[in-house]
């Protein structure tokens, strides 16, 4: 009888450890205060969106690239979209207004910080990229490539709130999982 209790206890412990592994290690939380980024974006949102000449086109919103991401792909997709903004959007955007440029630089620096945090997770093999995340990233890049570079950068900056809301939503789910 005692051996049976120990076996059940070990089985329960293994199930708990497996649950922690699948929910905690598959995702890698980005410990950054997105409120600061959101506030910076809100201060420049009107100025950026006023330059958007393609009101009926979207890069992040209608592609559903972010909304269809499974929990196991959140880390990878976050990493990919951060790289998209850092490597393409921020570099392609040319801003003459110094105040707006300062806010964009602040957001870019926050994205670089998040990229470094996710890089550590990837080095620890906690940030896997499955085909769904790769396909969703490709959709975003394809949407971007359909526009002229400067227009695409403006459009992507104007949709930054979509990405920030997605990060917040997935960080809340990670911390409650």
Automatic annotation (TrEMBL):
Gene3D superfamilies: 1.20.1250.10. The keyword Nuclease does not apply. Keywords: Cytokine, Secreted, Signal. Pfam families: IL10. Residues 1-24 form the signal peptide. It is found in: Secreted. Belongs to the IL-10 family. Immune regulatory cytokine. This is Interleukin family protein. The lineage of its organism: Eukaryota, Metazoa, Chordata, Craniata, Vertebrata.
